[in-house]
UniProtKB/TrEMBL annotation:
This is Alpha-L-glutamate ligase. GO terms for cellular component: cytoplasm. Keywords: ATP-binding, Ligase, Magnesium, Manganese, Metal-binding, Nucleotide-binding, Protein biosynthesis. One of its GO terms (biological process) is translation. It comes from Aureitalea marina. SUPFAM superfamilies: Glutathione synthetase ATP-binding domain-like. InterPro entries: ATP-grasp, ATP-grasp_RimK-type, ATP_grasp_subdomain_1, Rimk_N, Rp_bS6_RimK/Lys_biosynth_LsyX. GO terms for molecular function: ATP binding; metal ion binding; ribosomal S6-glutamic acid ligase activity.
Length: 291
């Protein structure tokens, strides 16, 4: 098969891992940089040109849409879908998972436990904070990755000051309860085609409330129990994502979903677990193209 990876970072670990996994199975692999894609509709047909060359021989697409390129990246994915190309994650699920508030709305509708969350654009932020109880509070930008755009407000005054600043700058955000008992740790589960293929527990470095490996956290491979596994699969299903990373928190009231990532990084999970996640994604494509 001819399989393309939609990515602006050809030399990134995740892109290279997917390229190697596909080539190891004798597929023709290539990387398409969104910056060089031109989309057209003509005579009732959708066409895509890459460096002015018509792309008409693809069988499948693996979107690796970065946060800074969400709109155009998802537009390209939608165009490929309209051309009948199999995409491991669709355009709408990518957009819905990338917007944290939209993601939480969908998860809540599916009765999936999540931290208490408020959209930060309400008219009375002080009352909203009172409904959370005592500080600290988590304030997150609606779009952000690797722990960027996540603020820990340790007092009501600092939370209100941050909220006022974000509102003045017209930055969209959410306010979320702080799960103290997680102690700076979370669980990342990778879901491919309705199955957990790998999982790890991440721990933030000392003094850091975020567990992201990009921020110096550590990780260890983990076998999920039934509750955690079921929760991660339900989240992926609710967002209609064929491939995703689901971040889970263990709280006093039980496990909950913290975030769903439609373009999960593969370096941390593959290095920590020794599992060929990229190979699992290629196998997913092969199964769907045989149907």
């Amino acid at each position: 098969m001819n399989i393309a990876i939609l990515s602006r970072g050809e030399h990134l670990y995740s892109t290279q891992s997917l390229l190697k996994a596909g080539m190891a199975r004798n597929h023709v692999m290539e990387v398409l940089d969104p910056a060089y894609c031109s989309l057209e509709t003509e005579e009732g047909q959708n066409r895509l040109y890459y460096h002015n060359e018509l792309v008409d021989d693809l069988h499948a697409l693996i979107p690796r849409v970065g946060a800074s390129n969400t709109y155009f990246g998802s537009t390209i994915v939608r165009h490929f879908q309209a051309m009948g190309i199999f995409c491991v994650s669709g355009a709408e699920p990518i957009l819905q998972s990338r917007n944290k508030w939209t993601c939480f709305q969908i998860l809540a509708q599916a009765r999936i436990p999540i931290p208490k969350t408020t959209l930060g654009m309400g008219y009375d932020p002080e009352s909203a904070l009172d409904r959370f109880g005592p500080p600290p509070y988590i304030i997150k930008l609606l779009q952000g990755t690797h722990g960027n755009g996540v603020i820990l407000a340790e007092s009501k005054r600092s939370a209100l000051s941050t909220i006022e600043t974000l509102k003045a700058a017209k930055v969209r955000f959410i306010i979320q309860e702080f799960i103290a008992e997680s102690k700076g740790s979370d669980i990342r589960a990778i879901v491919v085609d309705g199955k957990i293929v790998a999982a790890m527990k991440r721990q933030g470095k000392e003094g850091e409330f975020r567990s992201n490996l990009h921020r110096g956290g550590s990780a260890e491979a983990l076998k999920l129990d039934h509750k955690l596994e079921n929760l991660a699969l339900r989240a992926a299903k609710a967002l209609r994502l064929g491939v995703c990373g689901v971040d889970l928190l263990e709280s006093n009231s039980g496990p909950m979903v913290l975030e769903v990532n439609s373009t999960p990084g593969l370096e941390g999970i593959e290095t920590t677990t020794g599992i060929d996640v990229s190979g699992q994604i290629i196998s997913y494509i092969e199964r769907n193209k045989r149907q």
